């Protein structure tokens, strides 16, 4: 009698639809379920079932699931249910106290659509971490999907890997004012072609956009006011890495004065041809520009004052690594960055670079690392002899000019009491320089230098 009552109750509800076939996973968390009816059979027998529930064969695509009363955590509920194709709008309607849908539909690769009212009665939700992660068949998102979820704090990796998604509704997050991070939210959405300008307009508490659109490989442009209402952001690491951007709006970060990290923000944007001179002018607290433009192989020039308003930067590691079309470097590029400690791999692989300005590092007295800085700059024909005059604390010159085969002239030196002190001689002047401890292959394959014969072999 009890079973018939439950079955009748469930059959009046909208079904969850699966692809039929063998070994169909219906649920990943059976412990959340009061009833599961598939092919006319009740699969919750004892009420103590837990973990995944797989049927050897599913003939009827319609499955009826009722959750236990009082469930507040729906984490991983349909995790890995690869045959699930659709869910009803009222699936979670009887659970108003639910706070988490973390991983709820993780890798439901056959899920093609989401009903607009799926979370309409879940007003206490704070966590949508990885909710639709890897839903590769999902082609669209309802604009009001999160309209009633005003307490959400994280949308981290929510739509990661939704490869069929081509657009995002502008008001998707409009009623979610408490969100603090959008880390990886749309990462690997490879067919996403545009971003609405007001997507984050009502999210003033956000502090991180780490990798939000990384590997959105068909994304060609960014709205200039995308982050206009996000003044608390500190992290833009890898935000647009591996995208098809051809340009960057100059005022993209104009209202983000708290940013400290631009590491890898535009890394591997191979179609990017220019960087606006005022891009970072309103970001005085930045400390990290590591890999920011790494692999931007179409970039031919750098604005001289690009980093002029970033006095707290400590890292320029790999910043222009692999910018193979870059021909020149402005002399005052780092003039206002006196706190920098590392220039590791900064211009590594800039094959078209023909010259280095003499005063490039003149205002960076705290720099300790120049390892791999100009490796593979094969068009470089000379090094200014006074290039490192003001960099007397350097401990690492390993591979600095390795494979710069066209170099001629004398290697860098500093005049001390009328004597030339080359990099490899600094250890003999402890009162003037910190002795380098890393120097392996500093001038590897640069055998046209006039002082090549006197350079110690461990520097070669």
UniProtKB/TrEMBL annotation:
Pfam families annotated for this entry?
DUF285 (PF03382)
Gene3D superfamilies named in the record = Ribonuclease Inhibitor (3.80.10.10)
Task: Identify the InterPro entries for this entry.
Answer: DUF285, LRR_dom_sf
Mind telling me what this protein is named? Answer: BspA family leucine-rich repeat surface protein
């Amino acid at each position: 009698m009890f079973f018939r009552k439950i079955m009748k109750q469930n059959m009046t509800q909208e079904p969850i639809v699966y692809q039929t076939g063998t070994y169909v996973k219906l649920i990943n968390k059976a412990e959340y379920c009061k009833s599961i009816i598939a092919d006319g059979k009740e699969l919750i027998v004892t009420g103590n079932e837990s973990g995944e529930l797989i049927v050897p064969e599913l003939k009827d695509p319609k499955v009826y699931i009722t959750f236990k009363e009082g469930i507040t955590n729906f984490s991983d509920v349909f995790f890995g249910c690869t045959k699930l194709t659709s869910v009803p709008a009222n699936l979670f309607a009887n659970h108003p106290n639910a706070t988490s849908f973390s991983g709820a539909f993780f890798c439901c690769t056959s899920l093609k659509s989401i009903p607009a009212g799926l979370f309409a009665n879940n007003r206490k939700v704070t966590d949508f971490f990885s909710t639709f992660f890897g839903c590769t068949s999902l082609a669209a998102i309802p604009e009001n999907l999160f309209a009633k979820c005003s307490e959400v704090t994280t949308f981290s990796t929510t739509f990661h890997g939704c490869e069929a998604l081509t657009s995002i509704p502008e008001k998707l997050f409009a009623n979610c004012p408490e969100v603090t991070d959008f880390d990886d939210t749309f990462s690997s959405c490879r067919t996403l072609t545009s971003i609405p300008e007001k997507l984050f307009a009502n999210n003033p508490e956000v502090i991180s956009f780490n990798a939000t659109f990384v590997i959105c490989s068909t994304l060609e442009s960014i709205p200039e006011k995308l982050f206009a209402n996000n003044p608390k952001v500190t992290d833009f690491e890898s935000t647009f890495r591996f995208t098809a951007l051809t340009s960057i709006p100059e005022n993209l970060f104009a209202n983000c004065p708290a940013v400290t990290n631009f590491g890898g923000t535009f890394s591997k944007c191979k179609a990017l041809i220019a960087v606006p001179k005022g891009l970072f002018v309103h970001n005085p607290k930045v400390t990290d520009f590591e890999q920011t433009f790494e692999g931007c192989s179409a970039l031919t020039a750098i604005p001289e004052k690009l980093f002029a308003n970033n006095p707290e930067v400590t890292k320029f590691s790999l910043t222009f690594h692999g910018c193979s079309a870059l021909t020149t470097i402005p002399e005052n590029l780092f003039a206002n960055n006196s706190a920098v400690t590392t220039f590791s791999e900064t211009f590594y692989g800039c094959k078209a670079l023909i010259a280095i300005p003499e005063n490039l590092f003149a205002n960076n007295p705290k720099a300790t690392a120049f390892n791999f800085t100009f490796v593979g700059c094969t068009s470089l024909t000379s090094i200014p002899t006074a290039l490192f005059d003001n960099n007397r604390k350097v401990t690492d010159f390993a591979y600095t000019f390795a494979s710069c085969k066209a170099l001629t002239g004398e290697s860098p030196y500093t005049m001390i009491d009328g004597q030339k002190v080359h990099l490899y001689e600094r250890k003999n002047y402890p009162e003037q320089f910190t002795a380098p401890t890393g120097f392996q292959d500093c001038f590897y394959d640069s055998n046209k230098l006039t002082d090549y014969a006197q350079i110690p072999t461990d520097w070669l």
